[in-house]
């Protein structure tokens, strides 16, 4: 039974709600019988609480109540990852709102947190507090009765045993109601702020836990402190001071102006990383704090206007006067001007966080130039990966706050996200790109291609985050689907199955929007995929999945016409095969089949390819299955037509190839003849000098032969025999008859010194052998052979 767990996990991603419900029921049974792998598989159902299908949500909720609430609630909160915790928080809020979480359950959780049950561990204490603050999101009064316990236990000695307990306590402080905040400030305010400040500035927590704890601690300070900007400024100053304690420096300006790239290596990198984290997180919380203040003012203004309208009981005359005044105010735009003034003040406050008035006197703005220079020091960043992670995270946060700072550092951000060695840095920057696209869409629009390029990263985590970021932006209409959507389609065949499932979910949700955008994107995807080095199987799987989202017959018919028209603008055989394959994957109706026949002129030139023809035959076979008798006859006639064109086109292609080969051979021979003529013309001037030299040589030989007549005669006879053998050998090998009438003297002259016709490779061809070759090239036999080569019929015989 444990071998089918993977299949059950895949079934939970089915588009059929009944499949999902039955799978959850089966997994519940498997867990009751403690079958291996059932617990892990059942955890996979947690994200389904966000499903829009009510039946699926109810199935998950019932399973959650049956398995976890009654038995192992704490275990789920302790071992869950971030994604499961988000699902758990969502379902807990729903259960608290409906009253399914009873007072006795909450009391039992407090008993675990306060160690009132024997054998309670620090992890169980943390798990109980996690569940309680999640439930407090729907009902903040849950935490009211144990404020002192949260402070004493969450930040006490048990926090040293379980360091994550302090982070959980900070999260609980953020869920307090307004009344509880006032109560906490009046009783333990100073103590709580001191604890939080020590947690951020001190070194009591391990390095790997400090960042998460400091994150929640700073957020808690901004929520519960009456003037958070003052205490946040003290935190930044203390953190900055700790960085330079060991280096002896007292000011940042001195290091910022230094050109020595190794000036930072003498500092404690851990402290510098913490400082950058603190200053950037304070800046982010300051931005959130300004927006919350703006909302409070707007809410108070709206509440006051509502109360004035309800409480005043005006008589007719007074009411008419008020209406007259309101009409004048609306004409003058006084009400609108008040809202515009509030927005202007908020925008100014946000701008002053980094680049306001005088950035040099601004605490966070003073750090921004130093941070930029630090992140540009790539050699130092590669030497300290932790520092690079903290520095780039701080840079991204400051870019989210200020548009000018963002624009000036976008190039740096994309350089790091593409070339950083650490996949943690690349993942963080990829996530930050999503936030920047939401905040400053116009600045990020020119970098759309670079954002899609993260889908090709070597790291699985980077590709996964890129899929999540782009899915969020596109599905929420924060980014337009442009010509790079094929990059997302390619991830359907990602080597990591989780990424493939996320992309399937993305296209499934995208197909539900408006008039099915997937239908409009198919031609663009089809135009780009064939050039992406995909194998045939992967291409087929991608297109088959995408075509599965096309349900309407009208869209099918229109798609047939669009695909047929693509044949006219494409000359690549591979694209012909891809387009014809896509046509074969469509569900053909009578109308779509008619469209295919009417568009014959657009694809008749591609029917010579066997693979293309095979796809068209598959289409015809589909059309025959459900066609009426009269329509079937038309389809069969169409089949005969394309078969005929296929054979004709194939023969035509073969003929064209043969003609090209023939023309190439003719061109080669003509070029050879032209080269020989050039050699003849260049050698004519040398023949005269060679003849003079030859005559002198012959006179010398005659004189020499008088002194040695026997030896000369023997050599002459041997030379004559050799010449006759050569001529006889030429007569046998030549396809043409030898011409008669050649002078014997010419033959004798060409036979002189015949033993030197073929010199050794290391020596040059002597003058006499050269003369012999030139004499032969001017002979009538050679001329007849050349004339014969120029004749096409003789050329075909030779070939």
From TrEMBL:
The lineage of its organism: Eukaryota, Viridiplantae, Streptophyta, Embryophyta, Tracheophyta. It is found in: Nucleus. PANTHER family: CONDENSIN, CONDENSIN COMPLEX SUBUNIT 1. Residues 290-319, 628-655 form a coiled coil. This is Condensin complex subunit 1 C-terminal domain-containing protein. It comes from Salvia splendens (Scarlet sage). Its main location: nucleus. Residues 1-17 form the signal peptide. Residues 424-584 form the Condensin complex subunit 1 C-terminal domain. Keywords: Cell cycle, Cell division, Coiled coil, DNA condensation, Mitosis, Nucleus, Signal. GO terms for cellular component: condensed chromosome, centromeric region; condensin complex; nucleus. Residues 676-767 are annotated as: Disordered. GO terms for biological process: cell division; meiotic chromosome condensation; mitotic chromosome condensation. Residues 681-700, 723-732 have a biased composition (Acidic residues).
